[in-house]
């Protein structure tokens, strides 16, 4: 008897080892293949795909306990439930249940506790309930619930606390709430909630604190606020809130402190307040607020002192001022303020001292002056455009006056008299008052004694002197020499300094200091130690449709990069004809020709 028992034990153990040491993938394409499925498979299940036009039930799969690969149940037009999988406890790979137009519920998956990868529920036209997924606590990759025509809620994910990948909830036309996600605390990737036509709130997301990717809330037709996100404090990627036509305010985002990428709030026609962003202190990307027809101000952004990329405030029909930006001192890209017909004041930018790119004030019908731009360091402006502001007559603020008298990279047109041209602005009484020094020229050239840097002033007011600074990269400057100023003078005066130790390419700027220690910077010039044998010229700048390149040596490679560093055109030799720029988006571009780099504005 003992011998027989030993043989039986050995047989069972060997059968178990055989099942564990092999894995078989199954593709079941008919009801017959499901009915014939072995009750106790010889091998572990690898991947399991179920897809067949005549499949009505999965009852023949009741012996399956675990799947070591993926589970794909898709394109089964007659399948109404998955009851045959009632023994399934674990799927190590992804789960996809999609394009099953008769599937009403996920009944049968009540024992499923582990999903090793992603879950996708999509294009199930009759799906009304996902409550069978109530044992899932973690999804190690992504969760997508999309295009389920009659799904009313997400009840079934009540135990789900973490999704390590992205979460997308989109195009579910009857989804009225996110109930079922009450336990969700962390999304490891992106969270996208979009195109859910009857979704009214996010009230079931109260446990969510962190999103490690981007947050997109868009095209939700009846969404009125963000209530339900009250514990969300950090979004490591961009935040995009756009095309929610009934969104009135951002209440619910009161705990948000950081946007790791861009913050874009656009095309929300009913939006009247963004005050709930009051704790936001950091925007590591672009700030874009545009086409919000009812938004009167930017109150709520007062806690931000630095925006690490560009700022675009555009086409907000009711926007009257920029006071919500009163704490901003630094913008790491261009500034575009345009097509805001009710905008009367830029005073909210009064603390702004530095930008990095072009400054464009365009098509603001009610704007009469540029007060608020006074404190921008004019050397941080790469290109200035003030255009088509019908009532703008006073442009003589310090930063603008300094830029117009020390540089040539500007375009003024279509404004009211007084701000219609460089001559009008520079000669205005406000500019004469704002400028301590009338800098006529600032040039440099290479010579046998080094680089000769010279400048001339037509007048000086309370001028203590000029500190000449040099740099090898146009970013980090060192002090070179201080030349005493004339104090108060109305005569032309020449200054000259020889730099005996220049770099191969040396960048220079002047730091002019008043007697009261106020500081003004000049534009930056560059001098090449070894002058190029064949000069290169690019014009016009800004370019409108065509860009001409003149060079004696046409065998020079060239490339054009946009403001994001992406190459949009390149070739091994210069073109014989003018470059066609009509297909390029408007903005700043860097054009490299041989070893020279030019900054060009495209304004089609």
What attributes characterize this protein structure?
604 residues, Immunoglobulin-like, 7-stranded parallel β-sheet, 5 helices, elongated
Describe this structure in words.
- With about 600 residues, the protein is mostly beta strands.
- Among the domains are: about 435-530, Immunoglobulin-like; about 535-600, Immunoglobulin-like.
- The protein contains five helices and 43 strands.
- The strands form seven sheets. It has a 17-stranded parallel sheet.
- A hairpin with a 6-residue loop joins strand 31 and strand 32 (about 480-490).
- The protein is elongated.
- The chain starts with a helix and ends with a strand.
- The model is unreliable at about 1-20 (pLDDT under 50).
- This is T9SS type A sorting domain-containing protein.
- It is found in: Secreted, Cell wall.
- InterPro entries: CWI-Assembly_Regulator (IPR051648), Rcpt_L-dom_sf (IPR036941), Secre_tail (IPR026444).
- It holds the Pfam family Por_Secre_tail.
- Keywords: Cell wall, Glycoprotein, Secreted, Signal.
């Amino acid at each position: 008897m003992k011998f027989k028992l030993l043989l039986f034990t050995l047989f069972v153990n060997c059968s178990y080892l055989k099942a564990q040491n092999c894995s078989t993938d199954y593709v079941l394409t008919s009801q017959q293949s499901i009915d014939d499925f072995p009750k106790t498979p010889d091998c572990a299940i690898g991947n399991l795909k179920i897809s067949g036009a005549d499949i009505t039930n999965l009852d023949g799969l009741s012996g399956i306990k675990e799947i070591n690969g993926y589970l794909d149940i898709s394109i089964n037009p007659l399948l109404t439930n998955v009851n045959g999988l009632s023994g399934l406890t674990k799927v190590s790979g992804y789960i996809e249940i999609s394009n099953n137009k008769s599937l009403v519920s996920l009944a049968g998956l009540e024992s499923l506790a582990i999903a090793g990868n992603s879950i996708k529920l999509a294009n199930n036209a009759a799906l009304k309930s996902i409550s069978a997924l109530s044992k899932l606590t973690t999804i190690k990759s992504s969760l997508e619930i999309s295009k389920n025509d009659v799904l009313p809620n997400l009840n079934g994910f009540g135990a789900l606390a973490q999704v390590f990948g992205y979460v997308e909830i989109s195009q579910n036309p009857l989804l009225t709430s996110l109930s079922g996600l009450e336990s969700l605390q962390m999304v490891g990737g992106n969270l996208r909630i979009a195109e859910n036509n009857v979704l009214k709130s996010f009230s079931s997301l109260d446990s969510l604190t962190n999103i490690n990717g981007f947050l997109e809330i868009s095209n939700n037709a009846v969404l009125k606020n963000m209530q339900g996100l009250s514990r969300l404090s950090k979004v490591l990627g961009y935040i995009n809130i756009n095309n929610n036509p009934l969104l009135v305010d951002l209440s619910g985002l009161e705990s948000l402190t950081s946007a790791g990428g861009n913050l874009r709030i656009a095309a929300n026609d009913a939006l009247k307040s963004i005050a709930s962003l009051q704790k936001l202190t950091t925007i590591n990307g672009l700030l874009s607020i545009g086409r919000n027809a009812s938004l009167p101000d930017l109150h709520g952004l007062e806690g931000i002192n630095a925006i690490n990329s560009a700022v675009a405030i555009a086409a907000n029909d009711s926007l009257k001022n920029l006071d919500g930006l009163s704490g901003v001192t630094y913008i790491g890209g261009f500034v575009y303020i345009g097509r805001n017909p009710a905008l009367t004041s830029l005073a909210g930018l009064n603390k702004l001292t530095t930008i990095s790119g072009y400054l464009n004030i365009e098509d603001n019908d009610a704007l009469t002056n540029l007060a608020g731009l006074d404190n921008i360091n004019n050397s941080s402006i790469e290109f200035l455009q003030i255009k088509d502001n019908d009532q703008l007559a006073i442009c003589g603020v310090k930063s603008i006056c300094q830029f117009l008298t020390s540089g040539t990279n500007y375009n003024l047109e279509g404004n009211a008299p007084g701000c219609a041209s460089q001559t009008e602005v520079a000669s205005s009484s406000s500019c004469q008052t704002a400028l301590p020094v009338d800098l006529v020229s600032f040039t440099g050239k290479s010579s046998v004694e080094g680089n000769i840097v010279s400048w001339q002033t037509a007048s000086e007011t309370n001028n203590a002197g000029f500190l000449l600074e040099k740099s090898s990269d146009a970013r980090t400057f060192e002090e070179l020499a201080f030349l005493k100023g004339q104090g108060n003078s109305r005569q032309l005066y020449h200054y000259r300094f020889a730099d005996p130790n220049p770099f191969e390419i040396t960048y220079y700027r002047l730091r002019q200091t008043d007697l009261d220690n106020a500081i003004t910077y000049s534009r930056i010039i560059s001098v090449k130690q070894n002058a190029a044998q064949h000069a290169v010229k690019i014009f016009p700048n800004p370019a409108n449709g065509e860009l001409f390149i003149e060079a004696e040596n046409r065998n020079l490679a060239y490339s054009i990069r946009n403001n994001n560093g992406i190459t949009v055109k390149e070739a091994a030799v210069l073109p014989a004809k003018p470059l066609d720029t009509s297909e390029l988006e408007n903005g700043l571009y860097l054009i490299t020709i041989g070893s020279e780099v030019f900054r060009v504005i495209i304004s089609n």
